[in-house]
Amino acid sequence: MSPRKSVAETQHTRQRIVERSLAIASVEGLEGLTIGRLANELGMSKAGVLGHFGTKVSLQLAVVDAAATAFTEEVPRRVGDVRPGLPYLRAVCEAWVSYLERRSLPGGCFFTAAAAEFDGRSGPVHDAVTALNALWQRDLRVHVRRAVTAGDLPSDTDPDQLVYELMGVMLALNHFLQLQHDEAAPARARRAFRRLLGT
Amino acid sequence: MSPRKSVAETQHTRQRIVERSLAIASVEGLEGLTIGRLANELGMSKAGVLGHFGTKVSLQLAVVDAAATAFTEEVPRRVGDVRPGLPYLRAVCEAWVSYLERRSLPGGCFFTAAAAEFDGRSGPVHDAVTALNALWQRDLRVHVRRAVTAGDLPSDTDPDQLVYELMGVMLALNHFLQLQHDEAAPARARRAFRRLLGT
DNA sequence: CCTACCGATCGGTAGG
DNA sequence: CCTACCGATCGGTAGG
């Protein structure tokens, strides 16, 4: 029998599970993630892993949550103190390119992969992924609007159209980097962003 | 014991299996496809299904092949007899938008989904998906070059850059349509293509 | 956090 | 194309 663990130790174990899950899921997908593999790689029993979450869906939701936190730390938070509107847009797009260049996760952008995996399914995981995707696009749209108001983007700019095109450049970067290992892709993404957001 | 089937009947059954597999895989992914589910939905035994392919990987490859054939029929073949270069590019981009608008597959573009699913894996399925993706981009690039040569696109056009941006618009259309059911997305895609390829 | 176990399902095979 | 079956693994539970 294992000795009783402190709350801190329990939370640390939980964090280890989630981190490993995130790395596995970025390659195999959230459905390809299995309790047995997780237990094996962490040197634990399946029951020990599952005890922290109850069900696989709860584990998946914890992984989505951790991915959102990591993404926030690695992209928007790295933008630094730049003004809202166009300066923010340019900085956050550059932060996105840099995030994928750094290869923080072996499978590239977790949310791009999760969006493709769950877009045809239903349930809490789909809903969580969709909600976070919406948040990200809302953030972009807010700053596009401010840029237009400030006169930094043409007054006839359609914010939804620009968000659509920015998203396209981002999705393409993940695609070219992950599927084709195209090392020229980051430069192409930067050039495309420059064309959309001015020099 | 079932009566002996003719070659034609055997091929018909095989085709039924592949078609159903394609519909399932476009939603659940090629890994989420299972022999048991397939057998159940087709009213066959698992052995009856698997007998046509031998292994699950062979079935997956047959599905990729069928998806490629269907894609060719539904996109490049619908372009009609338009001149190579810029006219072809405009027509094939419009055919792509129309293809996704028609919702031929419940999960959207099969290759976009398969690319995201297999970009971190290795093996014959990954290789097949990657090769078809490369073919598609090569086709686009060939016509971009011709358009430049013909003087229909600026002489300083970087073909790989334009292919990258065209791919971004395509990936974004699938993303907005599948994940967000955004019915305005096709119009945004058309507008983005127009901006990239002239009015 | 463990051992021991559950029914269901996985891909695949033998034999006809 | 079927029945019958294989070992492995799935998510999850009981009980401690």
UniProtKB/TrEMBL annotation, chains A, B:
* HTH tetR-type domain: residues covered: 11-71
- Upper classification of the organism: Bacteria, Bacillati, Actinomycetota, Actinomycetes, Kitasatosporales
Q: Which residues bind DNA?
A: 34-53
Q: Which PROSITE patterns match?
A: HTH_TETR_2
Q: What is this protein called?
A: TetR/AcrR family transcriptional regulator
State the source organism's domain of life.
Bacteria
**PANTHER family hit by this protein:** HTH-TYPE TRANSCRIPTIONAL REPRESSOR NEMR, TRANSCRIPTIONAL REGULATORY PROTEIN
Q: Which species is the source of this protein? A: Streptomyces olivaceoviridis
Q: Which UniProt keywords apply?
A: DNA-binding, Transcription, Transcription regulation
